[in-house]
Prior knowledge:
The structure holds four protein chains of four kinds. Chain A contains 13 helices and 18 strands. By secondary structure, chain A is α/β, with parallel strands linked by helices. Chain A has two domains: 240 residues, 3-Layer(aba) Sandwich (Rossmann fold); 139 residues, Rossmann fold, CATH 3.40.50. A seven-stranded mixed beta sheet of chain A has the order 3-2-4-5-7-6-13, sandwiched between helices. In chain A, helix 1 crosses helix 2, helix 3 packs parallel to helix 4 and helix 6 crosses helix 9. The termini of chain A are far apart. The model of chain A has no long low-confidence stretch (mean pLDDT 95). Chain B is an alpha/beta fold. Chain B has one domain: 3-Layer(aba) Sandwich (Rossmann fold). In chain B, the strands form two sheets. An eight-stranded mixed beta sheet of chain B has the order 2-1-3-4-8-7-9-10, sandwiched between helices. Chain B starts with a helix and ends with a helix. Helix content of chain D is 34%, strand content 19%. Chain D has a six-stranded mixed beta sheet. In chain D, strand 6, helix 2 and strand 7 form a beta-alpha-beta unit. Chain D starts with a strand and ends in a 12-residue tail after the last helix. The N terminus of chain D is likely disordered. At the B-C interface, helix 2, helix 10 and helix 13 of B face helix 16 and helix 17 of C. Strand 9 of chain A pairs parallel with strand 2 of chain B, so a sheet runs across the interface.
Amino acid sequence: MREALEGSQAIARAVALCEPDVVAAYPITPQTHIVENLSKLVADGELHTEFVSVESEFSAASVVLGAAASGARAYTASSSQGVLLMAEVLFNIAGMRIPLVMTVANRAVSAPLNIWNDHADSMAVRDSGWIQLHCENNQEAVDTTIQAFRISQETDLPVMVCMDGFVLTHTMEVIDIPTIAQVRKWLPPFEFKRALDPSDPKSLGALVGPDFFPEVRHSHHAAVTKALPVIEKTDRSWARAFKRGCGGLLTTEGPKDAKIGIIAMGSTVGTLRSGLAKTEDAGVRLIKLRAFRPLPEEALREATRGLDHLIVIDRAISPGLGGILGTEIKAVLYGTPDAPRIHNHAIGLGGRDIPETIVGDLLSAIEDPDATPFSVFDADLTMLPPEDR
Amino acid sequence: MSDNDTDQRAERLAELREKFGRHPVEPKKPFHQGASLRDRQPRFCALESGHRACQGCGEALAARLVMECAGPDVMVANATGCLEVFTTPWPQSAWQVPWVHSLFENSAAVASGMEAAMKARGKNTKILAFGGDGGTYDIGFQALSGMLERYHNILYVCYDNEAYMNTGIQRSSSTPHAASTTTSPAGPERMGKRHLKKDLLGIIAAHHIPYSASASVAYPADLQRKVRYAMGINGPTFLVVHSPCPLGWKHDSHLTIEVARRAVECGLFPIVEMERGELANVMPIREVRPVKDYLALQGRFGHLMKPDDPRAVEELTHLQALADYNITYFNLRGEGEDPADTVGISQVARDRAAGEA
Amino acid sequence: MVVINRGAHAEPGTSLEFKTGNWRSSECPVHVHAKAPCHAACPAGEDQQAWFAWLQEGHVEEAWRELVSKNPLPSVTGRVCPHPCETACNRTSIDSALAIHNVERWLGDEAVAKGWAYPVEAPAEDAPCVAIVGAGPGGLSAAYHCLRNGLRAEIFEALPEAGGLLRSAIPPTRLPRPALDAELNRLLALPGIKLNLRCKLGRDVGLDELKHSHAAVILAPGCGLSKEWNIDGAVPTDLHEGLHLLREFMDHGEFPEARRVAVHGGGNTAIDLCRLMKRHGVEQVTLITASALPGPDTDPEDLINVVPRELEEALEEGIEIIEHATVKRLIMKGSRMTGVEIVALKKLLGTDGRMHRVQFEGTERVVSVDMVIPCIGERVDPEGMHNLMNRWHYLDARDRWSRTPQENVHAIGDARGDRGTVAEAIGDGRLAVEAVAARLQGRADPVEDTRPEMPASGLNPVYFGRISRTAVPKLPVAERTFEAEIEGDIGRMAALREATRCLSCGNCLACDNCWVMCPDNAVIKTAELASDGSHYVFDLDFCKGCGICAKECPTGFIQMAEDTWHEGD
Amino acid sequence: MTSVIVGATARPYRSDTMIEYRIHGRGGQGSVAAAYLLASAAFEAGHTCQAFPSFGAERRGAPVTAFVRIDNQPIHLRSQVRTPDFLIVQDDTLLLDRGITDGLKPGGAMIVNSRRSDEDVAEAFSCRTKCIPATELALDYIGRPIPNTALLAAFLTMTGHLPVDALAAALKGRFKGAVLEKNLALVDAVAGMVPAGAWKESEDA
């Protein structure tokens, strides 16, 4: 049913539709409304779950770890500092191959303190071994959340659903919320074969020494990589059932013969699309990357085929290196014949508003003889003392 | 299998039902049944041989004692530490119950999740959380506090060996005053740890939980009674078990029990029980020993055993004063002989059942 | 080939694949069933710890059967024995010794009262028969152990009644005759024992004849004659020596007239005599002994050789005892004695390396008495055994089994000269018979119990609380007569309570300490596979050798030994 | 791997029919609620909508803004509203900031919660302005000084952009019982107080 809903409220509703056994979360801006909405659903009797009001994100992650390990469908959500406080547990959950779902309301990481949206938090835990899926709008966030439960249990991997803080979480828009009957039909009941069970008492989280560790790591890597077709397949199945998809691993839009491409993740894609509408003659291919982990290397090479220039939009940076997605895409395209030239820009860091006019600026920058391979594109360097530029 | 075994097993299950008011899960591999003598031992063995604890490890003993009266319908969340490392070097595990290790500081939280899962799935399996003093007094304290506050049906057991032993004997907030560790070494400028042992039970008591207690490996019967009691409570319970570490305390491996016993007998480790934060019971000390008897067995207090060094004398006196304080504060002297005091509870008798067997 | 599973989880109990037994660096635990000190100290060879174990479990008859497997006369020894077992008892390191002798007596009396059968079977009609000379405790023990060894026994007793010195030299106040008769009669009634009374060796039957007619001869004649006594050649005209006086009194109830008496000597006979005379009305009874009274610093070698409780009762009753003294001179007024001069004396090591009794000049003093009674010991009546006498006028028994130079002839008990208690005689009887039986069956001599003794330091006293010893009622001094037994019955409740005080030195209590306290779960509980009464075995595949089990074993049954001990298992 | 999902080309990215709103208020006055209410009303009227706050960390009393976009097609743009068609000002003290009308499209209009005259304000800011004493009205009808309902009712009545019924429907989604009735009564009252359709032409401006 279509409703005008705030993003966080919609996520809470989506989570409730998946009927998790255990939800544990600690409030943090801008994820707070998700927790509040879930709490209210529980209080109103609309969601029958063990809602564990933990004392920290660290415990939130630990609680869902324990719950999922005990055979419960588990969900948590966090943001920014909370994700970083969880970091240790996040690696642990993935390493133990425990299926569960977490929403990250993407937000910058301090210092300086900043509560606004960018991707620094989920990027900081990109190596944790989770699946990371980015959402362009709240409909995708809802759909991806439900898909994430299915992907998670099919792969024995935890899934992080990344949605931009405030820009999506606090935005009311028209969202089609599936019915519980539809979700029950589409999402199989939770099953975790290695679940703790007194009738088959396994030990989870053993110490693995040098004799076996590389193999265990390899298997984790292989598992995340092999999640690619699962993510795609799941979205196709969703699209068949609900008449709308979330874009599989990635989507491309624009003329087939485009020579310039722009690739981005999350809500920025919408603004870029809006901006491109004003420059229809530019012949630009817009690539929306949904799966950041696993990174769909083949799909990326195909999506960028024929391009001379590829503008890679990052919403977080790795100081001393530059854009993270940009660097990864360079690596993906390395050695590809006729690979496009990469123009890597970080925009909207710490919630800097991204106007649709930025599209024109980005396209102009391709021809800028002074352009650096990477820039914080919307930073006004004149505000900095010369020695800090 | 003899009828006798069947009876014992039925009895045990009946006892469990009585204790938990619920039907325990039948383990796939039942206890004290099977081909080998080891399988037929008349106790529930959740922590098998072949673990890699040091010789004379107090923690390994404590964990086995706890598990004996907690299992089999339990699941364990274990903090990082010796217990975790020495029981589960992949591909082996010494555990016979569902067991999960996540991290150093989150066993209480992982256990919370497990308990929530049990509630959500309509199961009664009791959850245990284990941590060492590092994972309980220090880094995992927040998660523990949260667990207690949220009133999870979990028994948290802290195996207190008074330092970070897993990483090689660094001081924790549980390390006793004046003990020497690698991060509180004794030297010309220092007499070991400068600070006091944290009064964890006092803090736990402030959570107003149904039951919290201290116990010692030196008194297995008392320890196991407390575990049984705690297992029967629907709510958060806490047990701190004094577990000597021969390596870290620097005593001979065969002295583990003796050292633990003297800690109790001198008053430095009071054995107490609290109900809703109120002192409900103590193990009286029938014959109080001077703290020196306890300290002298351990190398970590070696620097105090120098009567010519006024600093050593001062710290020794200080420790005696701390013990005296405990004895007064908890009224550990008791009132006459008591079958549950330090002497009474230790007494052995020829086992009639065994004798007739 | 290792297959790494998802998330690297581990299956339950798989640590059993990892044998930590090779972590033992030097020592491993072993079960050592050491001798309990009571057992080591018991001349009769009783294993008190073993029968207390039965009592601890409430099995009274089994306790008695265990007891009488060594000593057939517990009712007697429970009354007359100086109980070296109690002196040795490790419990003294915690509080005080067990009241072993009181419990022994109670067990003996229980058996009589309940008519429990001795654990013997009638020997075959054609079983070899052993001739036993003397029906005192040694001879009776020998006869009993013949049955235990499948032999028949024929006893030759010079007197008209069996019992030997039990009857002739021990006052009924210590050993009431009904108690003595009851136990003796039960014993003598056992099939396979033939008793010939009024049959004296040398008079009625000859040694050579016995050697010929019987498979072996065991001489247990006791010491029927008093040692000769004089002071520098002088003796009082009306000399009465102690054992004779005692026998006379027990037969006729009369003592010679005397107001003040000195008894010279230091054994049970001396004490018995002192007490009887005092009770008979003698104003002053003084015992002059070369030995020492018990005290904290008393050298056991120097201690007066009497039953401690008898000594205690004697002092209660007003007997004066002068220790470390001897009679140096008799002071006579004509034929009438007026006193004895005594002098201080001590046993000291001489330059020849042997102990000598040294008198100290200048310590002489006079004790006024009108009678001095020598009570310095007894000697063997050599009749019929002259060629078996050694130069100290005792029978020439040469080893543990009391063999004499003559083949198939053993000499046991007081007649050996190096014995002095009923228990020793009982022990001798058993050992001699065991040697005889072994020889008859073509076996080597029975192996001595070479197990080490468990010292108090080998126990862990933590596990035994202080429990005071049961005080047994005694007749008040004023009520003591010549017949009524002075020491009372401990009774069933107290006997069982006393049993709980037994530390079970060196033996497994099945207390579970090792099983409970092994951090490595390497102690396996099993009644079937365990040996020596234990209920546990060590799983050396996993034992890391920490030593906790040995340290925390209350009884010292677990000890740490060189690990090579178990090689080849 | 051939998994690229290629979207339709030549898809109209931007609608010419999108209307953008900027709501100025003070923390605690319900600016975000007003934005959500307006978006909900648009949804009730069959439009697509987007409403979001200015994501500030401001506390009660600080000037805040919220944004609403209403269209007949999917809304992709996520940036803040820089060139609003309309301004809704919840508190006339905010008018002290002369930059409040920055970016207001030519022909745009502003509705202000104020007892001042429309003309005074319009003159000061050189835009079409309607002032209504929304706080007083709210106190009269609802009993609480929340100006949103009155402002939105006045606004919708004047622009005719959405039927007033849509606002009623949106209110039904947020309130129940007596509170809802009072709000609906307020909507009716305000609708009668302002000139219906007065700003309707602005849509074409």
